[in-house]
């Protein structure tokens, strides 16, 4: 159902005013438009309008500076903020200053109409306190692609809540970074952020790590120990690789989520807990549920807000920003800042990045550390990316079809050594080359068996546990198709 309202529009761009005026009037709203902040403020102060749509940067005032005043004068007036500066911080500021919704420009008119309709039909209540916060000097998340815009908006919304967030995405897409941002910009920022990686802890110790144990609870438990839940009290607990959580620990976790309390291993007294849970996985939990390895009821409890981080190849337009960001980071640690030639950037945009942002970060650091020249040429990028390139890349392979594996490696090594002139490459070459061959091998086998580890192990002639270990070490990820968000 469409609710009609009186809408105030402020934007110094006449074309946007016209478009909004027409679109909103057509569906029956009353619309008033202005090109400046002063007029908008006059209307708002006079009690006019049921909803405001405003641009951020206007000639006389920035909407973010005006928003606290609007919220103070008219706490129930929803304000939709539009901006062409589509960064993480814009979304965060919009949310912190109490904007109803943030829309990166260019926006979709239908989306805007939906937001307007939603804002006008929701029961009126004041949203979020305006808290004029100091701007952090650096942004935690880099990238302005449409895919990242969606993430920023979702994050901005989630920061004002304590809802459980479930982050999915391939290895290296920034799941941990996002979990930290949720904490550091959210309302629990003054509490602790505690991270625990289920894949990195021996399975039989996970329960005790999470919930703590009493003295003598099991062999080797010589003292009482606090768990991560207790350490995270009042803050955020990040459960990384939650798909690797053993069943018993899952049962305990479910109880915490249902009842807000838990007992330590070997303990009797229930302990109340106030912890926000953020979980992450690069596995498809639905597959694990089907295999009986993950509790379905727990899944529904933690999948309250699913957030799917895009793979880097789905947002290759962010690569130049990321490259600049990582060179700058390296610079603050004493590495040389460099540029990558436009041809080099093009190659990087076509590369599939199986290790996602982490792989890109490593490459940029390697370039900063290993090469003397200011501008990194396309040839160097081609050579550096070559071992990771997979034959079936859309847009063309970098390796000729008729090359054997041995020839390809030989070819790579020749160019690799020559890139160092007379010097030797860094130590550890044997393992590096082997794992670069292992990666595509394991990935191809897992893809061919559609992620079935038993079949892939058989195909490779490896023990299942060995394969599991390799998958983890190499960061192989085959659950590409799990679209959830
Ligand atoms: N949008 C981004 N902007 C800047 N840096 C990023 C971004 N995304 C990821 N990174 C960087 O890439 C690296 C990998 O990110 P992170 O560890 O958060 O990934 P992950 O998805 O948790 O990986 P895994 O599943 O392997 O644990 C980190 O160094 C992180 O700082």
Automatic annotation (TrEMBL):
Q: Provide the GO MF annotations for this entry.
A: ATP binding; phosphorelay response regulator activity; sequence-specific DNA binding
Q: Which residues carry this modification: 4-aspartylphosphate?
A: 55
The UniProt keyword set, sorted, is:
Activator, ATP-binding, Cytoplasm, DNA-binding, Nitrogen fixation, Nucleotide-binding, Phosphoprotein, Repressor, Transcription, Transcription regulation, Two-component regulatory system
- Name a biological process GO annotation: regulation of nitrogen utilization
Cite the Response regulatory domain residue spans from the record. Answer: 6-120
May I ask which residue range the UniProt record assigns to the signal sequence? none
Look up the domain of life of the source: Bacteria
Q: Where in the cell is it found?
A: Cytoplasm
Cite the Sigma-54 factor interaction domain residue spans from the record. 141-369
* Pfam families, alphabetized: AAA_lid_14, HTH_8, Response_reg, Sigma54_activat
Q: Under the cellular component aspect of Gene Ontology, which terms does the record hold?
A: cytoplasm
Identify the PANTHER family for this entry. DNA-BINDING TRANSCRIPTIONAL REGULATOR NTRC, TRANSCRIPTIONAL REGULATORY PROTEIN
As for what it does, the entry says: Member of the two-component regulatory system NtrB/NtrC, which controls expression of the nitrogen-regulated (ntr) genes in response to nitrogen limitation. Phosphorylated NtrC binds directly to DNA and stimulates the formation of open promoter-sigma54-RNA polymerase complexes.
Q: What is this protein called?
A: DNA-binding transcriptional regulator NtrC
What organism is this sequence from? Allomesorhizobium camelthorni
> Lineage of this protein's species?
Bacteria, Pseudomonadati, Pseudomonadota, Alphaproteobacteria, Hyphomicrobiales
**Protein's gene:** ntrC
């Amino acid at each position: 159902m469409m609710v009609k309202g009186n809408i105030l529009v402020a934007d110094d761009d006449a074309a946007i005013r016209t478009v909004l005026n027409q679109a909103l009037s057509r569906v029956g709203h009353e619309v008033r438009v202005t090109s400046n902040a002063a007029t908008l403020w006059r209307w708002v102060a006079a009690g006019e309008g049921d909803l405001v749509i405003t641009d951020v940067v206007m000639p006389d005032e920035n909407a973010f500076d005006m928003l606290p005043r609007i919220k103070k004068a008219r706490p129930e007036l929803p304000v939709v903020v539009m901006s062409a500066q589509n960064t993480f911080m814009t979304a965060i500021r919009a949310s912190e200053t109490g904007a109803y919704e943030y829309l990166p420009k260019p926006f979709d008119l239908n989306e805007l109409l939906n937001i307007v309709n939603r804002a006008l039909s929701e029961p009126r209540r004041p949203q979020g306190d305006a808290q004029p916060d100091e701007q952090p000097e650096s942004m935690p998340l880099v990238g302005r692609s449409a895919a990242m815009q969606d993430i920023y908006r979702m994050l901005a919304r989630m920061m004002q809540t304590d809802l459980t967030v479930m982050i999915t995405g391939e290895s290296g897409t920034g799941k941990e970074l996002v979990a930290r941002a949720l904490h550091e910009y959210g309302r629990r920022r003054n509490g602790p952020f505690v991270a625990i990686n289920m894949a990195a802890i021996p399975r039989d110790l996970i329960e005790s790590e999470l919930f703590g144990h009493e003295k003598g609870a099991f062999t080797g438990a010589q003292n009482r120990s606090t768990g991560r839940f207790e350490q995270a009290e009042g803050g955020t607990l990040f459960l990384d690789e939650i798909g690797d959580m053993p069943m018993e620990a899952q049962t305990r976790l479910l109880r915490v989520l249902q009842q807000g309390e838990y007992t330590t291993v070997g303990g009797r007294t229930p302990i109340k807990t106030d912890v926000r849970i953020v979980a992450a996985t690069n596995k498809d939990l639905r597959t694990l549920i089907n295999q009986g390895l993950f509790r379905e009821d727990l899944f529904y409890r933690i999948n309250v807000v699913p957030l799917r981080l895009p793979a880097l190849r789905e947002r290759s337009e962010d690569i130049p920003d990321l490259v600049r960001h990582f060179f700058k980071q390296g610079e603050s640690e004493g590495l040389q800042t460099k540029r990558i030639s436009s041809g080099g950037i093009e190659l990087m945009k076509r590369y599939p990045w199986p290790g996602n942002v982490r792989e890109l970060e490593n490459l940029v650091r390697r370039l900063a550390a290993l090469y003397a020249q200011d501008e990194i040429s396309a040839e160097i990028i081609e050579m550096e990316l070559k071992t990771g390139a997979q034959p079936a890349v859309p847009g063309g392979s970098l390796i000729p079809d008729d090359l054997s594996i041995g020839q390809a490696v030989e070819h790579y090594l020749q160019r690799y050594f020559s890139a160092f002139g007379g010097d030797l490459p860094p130590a550890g070459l044997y393992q590096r080359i082997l794992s670069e061959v292992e990666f595509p091998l394991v990935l191809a086998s897992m893809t061919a068996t559609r992620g079935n580890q038993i079949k892939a192990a058989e195909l490779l002639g490896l023990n299942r546990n060995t394969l599991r270990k390799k998958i983890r070490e190499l960061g192989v990820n085959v659950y590409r198709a799990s679209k959830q968000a």
